[in-house]
Amino acid sequence: MDFILKKKQFRFDVSLKVEELSLVPFVNAVLYCKLRFIGNGKRLIGQTPGLELQDHRVVWNKKFTFPCKMTANSTTMELDATCCRISIRREMKGGRAHHKIGFVDLNLSEYVGSGSVSRRFLLEGYHSSNRLDNSILKLSIGLTLVSGDVCFKVLVGWLAGWLVGCLVWLIVWLVD
Prior knowledge:
By secondary structure, the chain is mainly β. It has one domain: Sandwich (Immunoglobulin-like), CATH 2.60.40.150. 10% of the residues lie in helices and 48% in strands. The radius of gyration is 19 Å and the shape is globular. InterPro entries: EEIG1/2-like (IPR039931), NT-C2 (IPR019448).
């Protein structure tokens, strides 16, 4: 007899603040951010106002608060990835058109239980020919559990996994 394991469901309130974009390779431009979930649904979260560059940076300090559903495997209780894309766009033709500059894909499940944290992310280009010269997007992220079991495992980010791998390698090297 086959058993179908249901996924556990969790609801979180997400507080995401888009603080600034720095090291922008343009002299003058009007830039804004568009936030949406990626994967199932592709639901729009919101967007920042278009602001002009000053000294190769733009400061939005725009806070978004939105609900987010997450699921977890019922046996391991590890949260599944839930991604949000922050897309940076440049206004063209007086705001009637736009050009996509770059994006950051943010896995919200990595930040569950870590309080409010501030992180910087390098922009990724939409096309391989689009070089972004290391533009950095600064975000503040916080998640609060609204409903669901408090027992779950948080996904370890790629950097933490990389550091653990380096630590294991170092221990093996020291022992030999």
